[in-house]
Amino acid sequence: RKTHQPSSYHFFNEPAEVSLFRSRLLRWYDQSKRDLPWRTVAMTETDANIRTYAVWVSEVMLQQTQVATVIDYYNKWMKRWPTVQELAAASVEDVNEMWAGLGYYSRGRRLHQGAQKVMSELAGEMPRTTQGLLKWLPGVGRYTAGAVGSIALGLVTGAVDGNVTRVLCRLRAIGADCTSSLVTDLLWEICNLIVDPERPGQFNQALMELGALVCRPKSPLCARCPVQTHCHAYRKVTHITFSVAILYYGMLSKMGGGHSVCFCEGWARDLGVQNYPRKPVRKAPRVERMVTCVLRCRMTEDEDEPQYLLIQRPSTGLLAGMWELPSILLEEDIPGKKHRALLSAEVQRIVGTSPDEDSFQYLGEVVHIFSHIHQTYVVYSASVGGSTERDREPQSRWVSASALQEAAVSTGVKKVCELVHVLTGLRGLCMRDISIYISSLFYIVMSGKCCLIPAFLIL
Q1: Torsion over CA: 221, 227, 231, 235 (sign)
Q2: Which fold has domain 286-458?
Q3: What is the pLDDT of residue 430?
Q4: What does the domain layout of the chain look like in residue ranges?
Q5: The one catalytic residue among 59, 324, 365, 418
């Protein structure tokens, strides 16, 4: 048996319900919100230009990155570049170094490009409308424009991010693919309807906060939810007297061209409200293996501290403009016995000299996972003398261990340096940004034995 609910089932249609929903959510937010630096700026900064810039920076950093990781990066960024004018005057290299370890590195470059655009084309004035934010700031989409506009400028507009998508899909029992244009448009329509016109920025943050703290992807805290009585998903789970077939298997409504926004697939009873939102199956990440070398050099015999070779990546593509250790992408059929020969040839190409193949010492393997790539670094170390041709490869440089700590290198490179630190005791290579390591695990493979090690245990 199938049942069809009216499309109003997936919407907020009663003004009284909208008003009650707003008041309950904002009351909870006022009592429970986290104390975050960008929220303080949004509430206390009287200069709209600085306020808009500060919120913009925070929203870009928070894309695909956990709040706990962002806080320290945000504070350092704002201390160094407190205004859009100062960011515009910075170099790309400085921006990359500041962003190192935060991931999705194009975000930092787009902030820099946006700041320069504001200075050159808008006389240093940040846009004051969502349309202006979309037009003038590279990388700003509908969500970021809505968030910055509402939080920094008080514009009455919704802001639909991943947290808000989850909250609204559960509240209104929207079980179709949440990435589809049909559902996306519906969510924006709902959000623009229910946003509080008196406190739009705080309302949008309250929805996001609810998704982060209560309506979580896993183990949601429904008993603590301030808007539990408005939630269709929760009602479905608790009203067990109804037929499961009636509640969960039907196409509950039709919208626009006959497309359903409800479940067309079976309901997993053990998941409860976690059946929402419904997402498409993710494509498996691409698997890559890289052979990489930590290459040391003492430029003079009396030099106490060795130098380490870094290569700059191309200005476009993955990790554009970042620095990395000499590395080669391995073809599937390359046997391990050829790794040293490959590295020897690569080092020869870069610096004009190379150790004997037997001098490359195998250290282990490090796994680093991007959103779309599962990457394994096969790590070797080697040393060369001081007669290298330091300018042979324009996109290379030798740096001290201390300079390596501050260089614009990726999290993957930092993990490789940690491996070197653990195995050889080179403390100068240790990367001290604990926020990166608490949230990550990596594999070290030695003598064929694989150990899973929390990175923060080996600092």
Answers
A1: positive
A2: Nucleoside Triphosphate Pyrophosphohydrolase (3.90.79)
A3: 42
A4: 7-275, 286-458
A5: 59
Residue 97 annotated to the active site:
no
* Tens digit of each residue's pLDDT (9 = 90 or more) over 126-163: 999 999 999 999 999 999 999 999 999 999 999 999 99
Q: Give the burial class of 205: count Cβ atoms within 10 A of its Cβ; 0-12 exposed, 13-18 middle, 19 or more buried.
A: buried
CATH architecture of the domain formed by 7-275: Orthogonal Bundle (1.10)
Evaluated on CA atoms 245, 248, 254, 257, the torsion sign reads negative
